[in-house]
Each structure stands twice: as C-alpha cells, then as structure tokens.
Design a protein that fits this description.
alpha+beta, 13% strand, elongated
C-alpha cells in the first residue's frame, strides 16, 4: 500500500487537529471540592494549581490553625483527584493499551516503559515515501 503526498499531509493535519483539541480539553479542566461541613471550597486547575479558595459562613473561624490547615489540604487533595480523573478521561484513549493513566499522571509510571527501546518507528510506506528522491 502506498500513500500520496496529499494523503500523508491530510493524515498529519487530522492528527494535529486532534492534538490541538486534546490541548483545549486539558486547558479547560478544573475541579471544585467542598469540605464535608461546607466550611471551605477549593478550585484546582488542570495543572494542579489552586485557583480559588472560598470560605463560607463563619464555621471555619472556630477551627484551630492546624485543623483549618488539615481541612484545606484534604479539600485541595479531593479537587486534585477529580482533576486527575478528568485528565485520565482525555488522555487514556491516546495511550497504549494497559497504561494506567492515573499512575502515569501521579508519576508512578515511567513513560519510557511503554515506548519502543529502539525509538519511534514509521510504517514502511511512510519510510519509502520519505526516501523517494
């Protein structure tokens, strides 16, 4: 099977558009978590950055500093886990079968473990096309 220049260019453009769409999806990801007794809510971005903290009511004022710190960290962690789940939904379809995307995002999987050791390979047809004079 051989491919024309136009077919290869079209395939490249589709992949590029798909990558751009995934980028837009990722950029739009955020999550807001609220503590169990609704003292605080926290919004975390796709990158894990805390983008907003809102204290509701006055109940948080009765917490000791260490309790408030724990409450904030737990709420931030809950929002971050939700973001990770949303990222996994976007990224999983593009990863090789068997890759645990949540472990990958957490840094518990070495990306090199699912990449070919000899480097990237191209289909024979593309190699032949590129080698043409």
């Amino acid at each position: 099977m051989s491919f024309s220049h136009d077919e290869l260019l079209s395939a490249f453009r589709k992949q590029r558009e798909s990558a751009a769409e995934r980028y837009r999806q990722i950029q739009a990801i955020s999550a807001t978590a609220t503590s169990a007794r609704r003292e605080v809510s926290v919004t975390v971005s796709h990158s894990g950055a805390v983008r907003d903290i809102k204290f509701t009511g006055t109940a948080y004022r009765r917490l000791a500093p260490a309790e408030l710190a724990t409450l904030l960290m737990e709420t931030i962690d809950e929002a971050a886990k939700e973001v990770a789940g949303k990222l996994a939904e976007v990224l999983a379809p593009r990863l090789p079968p068997g890759v645990d995307v949540e472990k990958l995002l957490a840094g518990d999987v070495d990306p090199a473990s699912f990449l070919p050791a000899a480097g990237p390979t191209l289909p024979r047809e593309i190699v032949e096309f590129l080698q043409q004079d």
